[in-house]
Amino acid sequence: MAERRLITGFSNPAVKYLRSLRDKKHRKAAGKFLAEGLRLLTDARESGRLPEMLVMATGRDPHPLLDALESEVLATGGEVLEMAPDLLAKVTGKDNPQAVAGVFAEFNTSLAAIDRNSAKIWLVAQALRDPGNLGTILRTGDAVGAGGLILIDDCADPFSVEAVRASMGAVFTQRIALAKWQEFLPWLRSGPGQLIAASLREAVDYRGAPYAGPCFIMVGNESRGLPEDYELACDLRVTMPMKGRADSLNAAIAGAVLAYEVLAALE
Predict the structure, then answer these.
(1) Nearest to 211 by CA among 111, 122, 151
(2) Tens digits of per-residue pLDDT, 210-248?
(3) Segments of 106-174 assigned E as strands
(4) Assuming Cys at both sites, which of 18, 50, 203, 222 could form a disulfide with 237, CB separation 3.0 to 4.6 Å?
(5) Hey, is 218 helix, strand or coil?
(6) What residues contact 46, with CB distance under 8 A and at least 6 apart?
(7) Domains of the chain (ranges, CATH numbers)
(8) Is the Cα torsion angle 200, 138, 120, 266 positive or negative in sign?
(9) Are 90 and 19 in contact (CB under 8 A)?
(10) Alpha carbons 258 and 263: distance in angstroms, whole number
(11) 108, exposed or middle or buried, with CB in 10 Å at 0-12, 13-18, 19+?
């Protein structure tokens, strides 16, 4: 079985490769992404996904979960690197990085890989630009037992370091699909599925609305919301009361509120 390898210099090709994965262009070219932190990597392992490369900081505190992770990575032919914390900070882009990071192969993100009947709830985001919001929606999906997240049109990269970090491990538990609206709508209409969105157009109160599974909850861009024709294509449009001066909720928060209401209705 292979052994861990010590990396000592900033100019080492492994450091350059790992740093390149912070850039979307290089991630897409390599088909790989970075995840940081023992909790997140342990969630991945428990979800059946192991990193192809495990990177650990020298001087880290010992931990049985990290030992188990290293053993499994090496047993499956993966690579284990060890480097000083300042080198790891260069890799992750954080001044105080966690003691471990991993390189994973990107997942199959085609609509064809989605089994809509495997869950009662699915989340859909259109033109969502903030990786923090994207990660939050993934966490919401995990919390409500959703099948996954379908990203429509030009969304933030779900495999960016920021989105993966914000997902708190949900990137490994939720199916992720990427599609254009022109692909998604015919796919949705080819089988069962209720498409809903928060809206002011002929909308009903989100509490007690006639939800039906599998239910696809769609949120729009943070500043522009959903295009009108996207809203009109929905099977159900719901509205949430706004008691203060704000005229809308954050996209990820609105998705969470709706998801829990749908969960309660379908259980």
Answers:
(1) 122
(2) 999 999 999 999 888 899 999 999 999 998 877 777 667
(3) 121-126, 148-152
(4) 203
(5) strand
(6) none
(7) 5-105 (3.30.1330.30), 111-266 (3.40.1280.10)
(8) negative
(9) yes
(10) 8
(11) exposed
Ordered strands of the 53-57 beta sheet: 5-7, 79-83, 53-57, 100-105, 32-36
* Cα-based torsion angle of the residue sequence 185, 191, 193, 195 in order, rounded to the nearest 10 degrees: 20
For residue 72 the two structure tokens come to 């499994």
Tell me the residue length of the chain: 267
Instruction: Write out the two tokens for 165.
Output: 């970090």
Whole-model pTM: value is 0.91
Mean pLDDT of the chain: 92
Structure tokens at 74: 């090496």
- What is the rounded distance in angstroms from the CA atom of residue 264 to the CA atom of residue 210? 12
C-alpha 127 chain-centroid distance: 15
pLDDT (tens digit per residue) in 152-209 = 999 999 999 899 999 999 999 999 999 999 999 999 999 999 999 988 778 899 999 9
Q: Is 112 exposed, middle or buried (0-12, 13-18, 19+ CB in 10 A)?
A: exposed
